[in-house]
Amino acid sequence: MKVIPILLLILISNLTDLSNYTQTTPLKESISRGSVIYEDFCMQCHSPDGKGVEHVFPPLANSDFLLQNRALSIKGIKYGQKGEISVNGKTYNGFMQPMGLDNEEIADVMNYINNSWGNKSENMVTEEEVAAIKK
After folding, report:
1. What secondary structure does DSSP assign to the chain, as a single string?
2. Quick check: pTM over 0.90?
3. How confident is residue 67, by pLDDT bands cut at 50, 70 and 90?
């Protein structure tokens, strides 16, 4: 009969451990918010799959520029982008308007982009990091 209480204890302790698997991390929450921002502000030019339009709008999917130029990427979203940039070996010389996003929204959309379409970055962009980027 002592086996049943012990089994019950094991079962209860295992159930409490399951709660750890359903919790979201701050990065996952930011990525989720960022996906909505991407749909509203970025998708029209960079496309739903992040591939952009060759020679017109640079790709965000598998983008070497994003991961190698983090501060410049943030600055481009925050203040707009003009002039030549090289993305995945191709030159783009267009203009992107500033989107009018606040620092948290910029961090969220950067976290979404940095973790979509083959991009992977565990290094979370924060609101404070975005605030530190000056024109």
Report:
1. -THHHHHHHHHHHHHHHHHHHHPPPHHHHHHHHHHHHHHHHTHHHH-TTS--BTTTB---TT-HHHHH-HHHHHHHHHH-EEEEEEETTEEEEEEE------HHHHHHHHHHHTTSTT----S---HHHHHT---
2. no
3. confident
